[in-house]
Amino acid sequence: MISYGYQQYKAQSVETMTKGEMLILLYDEINKRLLRAKKSLAEGEVQLFEADVQRAIDIVRYLIKSLDRRYPISNDLYRMYDFINFDLSRLKSGRNLSIIDEITPLVKDLRDTFKEADRLAKNSVNAVKSNPDSSVG
Q1: Is 106 a member of any domain?
Q2: Which of 6, 75, 96, 131 is most buried when burial is the number of CB atoms within 10 A of its CB?
Q3: Residue 9 placed within a domain
Q4: Residue-wise pLDDT tens digits, 69-84
Q5: Does 16 have pLDDT greater than 80?
Q6: Residue 81 maps to which CATH number?
Q7: What's 46's DSSP letter?
Q8: Terminal CA-to-CA distance of the chain, rounded, Å?
Q9: CB neighbours of residue 21 within 10 Å
Q10: Distance (Å, rounded) from C-alpha 34 to C-alpha 56?
């Protein structure tokens, strides 16, 4: 019974997230999976390592598919995601932990950039809501 309530809570929280919050959550999940993969490989847990890296790859592929190519920034993001995807594939096949150290700062920078963009977007919406007479028109 408690588990059902928790599942409802999780579903509702995801449904009420902004697109920016969802992106931040996805970047956080990539970082979490990379940290777990690093720990798993160091402990000799190859199956867990591969599962975590594969999950990170799946997330990056989702990000690539979800790009709206009408915007010029999408091409830059596509190239970044493609680079990350390539390195994750190298990581999975070669089990070279230094690749995690190369990818993690890039993923964190993307996360921080989208977090700031989401904050600015929320502030902009709140400013218009609090002063509707100042809207452009």
Answers
A1: yes
A2: 96
A3: no
A4: 998 899 999 999 999 9
A5: no
A6: 1.20.120.340
A7: H
A8: 52
A9: 16
A10: 7
